[in-house]
Amino acid sequence: MRMEGTEARTFSCGNLFAAIYYLPTMNTHTSSLIAVLLTMLFGACASFSANGQLIPIIEIQGEAEVSPYDGQTVTISGKVTEYFGDSWYMQDAFGAWNGVYVEGPDVMIPANSPYWNSDRQPEVGDVLEISGTVAEVDGNTQIIDAVLVDFVDFWNATPMGVWVTASEIQDEQYEGTRVRLDNATVLSAPDSDGYWTVEVEDGEVTCWGVDTDDPAGNEDPDGPTPGDVYQVYGASHQNGDAYVLHVGDIDVLSLGVAQLESAEWTLAPNPVSERVVLASADHASGSIVRFEVIDAQGMVIMDMQTFTGQSVDVSQLGSGVYFVRIQLPESGFAALSRLVKR
Known about the structure:
CATH class of the largest domain: Mainly Beta
Largest sheet: 5 strands, mixed, barrel
């Protein structure tokens, strides 16, 4: 789907080349006049081609911290991968350097009945051609003051995103690019500014935003809770000295048990190599407890009965982050504690 203005523009330039083709068949006076007009028109079309030339996003990123187009007006075409109202991310190819953050509060997609009956802002899956100014904002290469040149298509499938580790997401090459974190265990719930943290195999990642409208029904209805295990999809965005993940979608792998505030449980030492001791300020040593160890996929890999104050052999566990679920059979009390195995 192309907007009317673009079709008219293409048709006019097409007529230009057709007229040039037929010039030899016209009389001298007519052909001379047409030639002058065509020269003017060709200049206009050539000017459009130069000024409206689509620039690949990888060239705008420049494969560097600062864009070579900083301060210049550019035109790009790509797919919306994440959207946040007045701002969104666009990508024109898969992989590093191929995404960019766009700010365009005035960009509106025209109504397209019966699919949508009024103008709307860009959404995930839209394919757009936009023009705007390249700017470096807080370390991010962005396109600001975006205007819509052409609305190309809608409801396109969103790419899975590049699988990255905690260390890789801190790499400049993924700025603006759709990425994903696999087997990410939630460490902290969203704060008042919407930031929350997860842990993957090689470290922690800060996320921003929450998926609350997943048409596949895979989102966590009560939001990120410590112990939940997700696959998280989003775009990398620099925030200060580090990169955060602007979340667009989550897939729930397992839901954890929220740690209860009524008891303070400790696992020591933590991190642990061989044996860990479970203790509680609220429960006397020797209290019977059910001790479960849960891996990053949400699977229970240890399930045993033990006593507070007694050490538990965890030497057979592989290195990584686990959660220990503690249950008191008599009261039904349950709590969750994080355990790091060296």
